[in-house]
Specification:
The protein is of the alpha/beta class. The protein has one domain: Isochorismatase-like (Rossmann fold, 3-Layer(aba) Sandwich). Helices cover 42% and strands 15% of the residues. The chain contains ten helices and eight strands. The protein has a six-stranded parallel sheet with strand order 3-2-1-4-5-8, sandwiched between helices. Strands 6-7 form a two-stranded antiparallel sheet. Strand 6 and strand 7 form a beta hairpin. Helix 8 packs parallel to helix 9. The longest helix has 16 residues. It is globular, with a radius of gyration of 18 Å. The termini are far apart.
């Protein structure tokens, strides 16, 4: 038995080494929605508190414009878009333990809002939508879910909102790639959704000691049914209409 397991493992490594991974593919249809995580100032504005970490990747990918293209595509073709935002309220700052980046986000006031029942101070804040996206997010085809609190959608109502709309296929984009995008990808896969990612409509932290963008792309490739470029996904949608 151990010999069989070892041989299977070696075959798996050989397949990966020679780039012979299977290609499941992903076809856009009426049961497909777009999920966009954290299209917010703190990530995507040069004035945002995370820009120093993610700015290089955002610029390399053309993330701001590629996300705008996805919003525009969805508006023009009546495609449902589910925006999964990241907000922190005062009671979230009273947590008794945190991971490394949770602690960092709380320390720098990332995604902070006055409270869940007020928009006081929201306009133009780090938690607000990037300006070019606002006209799209206010559209009738866009659903804004409750906020996720760490990285994945386990703490918000994204899966419920998708199910209630009869969606079983999703295309994910947004910020940041190796954290919220990847965490949403993993959870939705576990929930039984067919999932693709638009890789250049995401971006990740790039620092001297780490490269979140490369980590994200590696895991998108190993997990998703398809990894699109924005132009490829636009063509897929136009071809499927």
């Amino acid at each position: 038995m151990k010999k069989i397991i070892f041989l299977n493992f070696m075959i798996f490594l050989s397949i990966i080494s020679f780039g012979q991974l299977p290609e499941p593919g992903f076809k856009f249809d009426k049961s497909t929605a777009i999920v966009i995580t954290d299209p917010q100032n703190d990530f995507l504005s040069e004035k945002g508190v995370a820009w120093g970490a993610v700015g290089e990747s955002v610029k390399e990918n053309g993330t701001v414009e590629n996300l705008r293209k996805l919003f525009e595509l969805a508006a023009q073709n009546s495609i449902l878009v589910f925006v999964s935002p990241h907000y922190y309220y005062q009671h979230d700052h009273q947590w008794k333990f945190e991971g490394v980046l949770e602690k960092l986000m709380h320390n720098i006031g990332m995604f902070d809002r006055k409270g869940p029942l007020t928009t006081e101070g929201f306009e133009g804040s780090g938690a607000d939508w990037l300006q070019p996206y606002k006209k799209y997010i206010s559209g009738s085809n866009v659903i804004v879910t409750s906020p996720h609190k760490v990285y994945g959608p386990q703490s918000n109502d994204l899966a419920l909102q998708l199910r209630k709309r009869g969606i079983d296929k999703v295309v994910i984009a947004g910020m940041s790639g190796n954290l919220c995008v990847e965490s949403h990808l993993r959870e939705l896969l576990e929930e039984g959704f067919e999932v693709a990612v638009v890789s250049d409509a995401t971006a990740s932290a790039k620092l001297p000691s780490l490269n979140g963008a490369q980590a994200a792309l590696t895991n998108y490739t190993l997990l998703a049914s398809k990894v699109f470029k924005t132009s490829e996904f636009l063509n897929e949608v136009k071809g499927g209409k």
